[in-house]
Amino acid sequence: MKLSFSAEDEQFRGEIATWLEQNLCGEFEQLRGRGGPGDEHMYPDERKAWERKLAEGGWTCIGWPQEYGGRGASIEQQVVFHEEYARAGGPGRMGHIGEGLTGPTLIAFGSEEQKQRFLPGILAGTEFWCQGYSEPSAGSDLANVKTKAHFDETAGQWLINGQKVWTSNAHESEYCFVIARTDPESVGHKGLGFFLLAMDQPGIDVRPIEQLTGTSEFNEVFFDDAHCSAQDIVGAPGEGWKVAMGLLGFERGVSTLGQQMLFQNELDEIIRVAKLNGAATDPVIRQRIADAHVGLRIMRFNSMRTLSGGGDDGTLQKEAMIYKLYWSTWHRNLGKLAMDVLGPESEVLEAGPYELNRLQSMYLFTRADTIYGGTNQIQRNIIAERALGMPREPRG
Fold it and tell me: With the C-alpha atoms ordered 210, 258, 94, 109, is the resulting torsion angle positive or negative?
């Protein structure tokens, strides 16, 4: 793992820092530091416009190969980009799923026709994606998916039926990648397909899920004979698990750098409030802030270590398996720190009937961090069995 940056990397740092200073202003000034956890509902249209602005400057998909419109940026340069983006207060990326998950997955596993069709819209910041993995009975146990895909020979297309849940920004997305069962007799990770679906069609119903924060960036998505062309399955029927696991490798890879950017913005806001209301004079609060800073640095270094040995197909070193457990616990503790820094103000709403400030929203959102994406208990099993090679837990 490299912990230092070359002269070329530092020149790159200056380039992105200057561009952000010149462009994250005017109509985009209000977006600084917005769009993080618990705040994802804010300014969606403006943040989409910001994605197009990034694309005009050549700052979307910088890690993609140049042949697909990216810069082919090194891991070090991608780290630099996210550091400077955080330092400038760049907003949460509306294009995160497409850029960090869909794009790399299609580059690794997709057909050339799929790449030519879907990658340009992601690169240009004009087409946005959501993730159709979790279901009511398939959360941490992803292989338990019940959504079905049937190929209609007459129409020459797939018909998707079932339900997905906790689908972030489904109401703001043009496309969704969906794991569905192509073999109705199959169980577990066998007999699955990985499908690319247009959201704007009669067979898809998006229903918001209201959260503790009062917002609804998560959704339930129902598929009732939703159409998917024969060309829009990634890989062959039955290979969906391989593609899905490759995508999860990308989710625990470079895309983690963007997540850490949002965490840094939240920590900066906590420090600002602590200085403003005097909480920073409390030695215990100061120590907890220092611990949060150290924890975020550790998170960054582990990501760099993991990425340094990753493959182009999403495969990562075993150290990647600790990431979800680590960040979710760290972020939950950050939410507690935010409330203690706010003090009595943490129990007072900004306005009625239910208007939370940014740190209150973040605190409530972090209550779910150790549950979604695989509970902490599931993560510990994964680390024990897959990383450490310990005996599998007995299963009924």
Answer: negative
What is the distance between the alpha carbons of residues 322 and 310, in angstroms, rounded to a whole number?
Answer: 15
Peptide bond into 136 cis (omega under 30): no
Q: Give pTM, 2 decimals.
A: 0.87
Pair of tokens at residue 245: 């696991």
Neighbours of 264 (CB within 10 A): 22
- Radius of gyration of the chain from Cα atoms? 21
Topology of domain 7-94 in CATH is Butyryl-Coa Dehydrogenase, subunit A; domain 1 (1.10.540)
Residue 132 Ramachandran class (φ > 0 left, ψ -120 to 50 alpha, else beta): beta
Token readout for 173 is: 């997305």
Q: How far is CA 231 from CA 101, 121, 200, in A?
A: 19, 18, 18
Decide if 8 contacts 80 (C-beta within 8 A): no
DSSP characters for 4-61?
S--HHHHHHHHHHHHHHHHHSSGGGGGGTT-SSTT-TTS-HHHHHHHHHHHHHTT-SS
Q: Which two tokens stand for residue 230?
A: 């024969």
- Please give the mean pLDDT across all residues of the chain: 91
pLDDT for res 197: 98
Q: Note the pLDDT of residue 311.
A: 55
Q: Quick one: CA torsion of 28, 104, 366, 297, rounded to 10 degrees?
A: -90
pLDDT in tens, 294-318: 999 999 888 878 776 655 555 567 7
**For the chain, which residues make up each domain, given as ranges?**
7-94, 129-238, 252-387
Which pLDDT score is estimated for 313?
54
CATH topology of domain 129-238: Butyryl-CoA Dehydrogenase, subunit A; domain 2 (2.40.110)
Residues acting as catalytic residues: 251
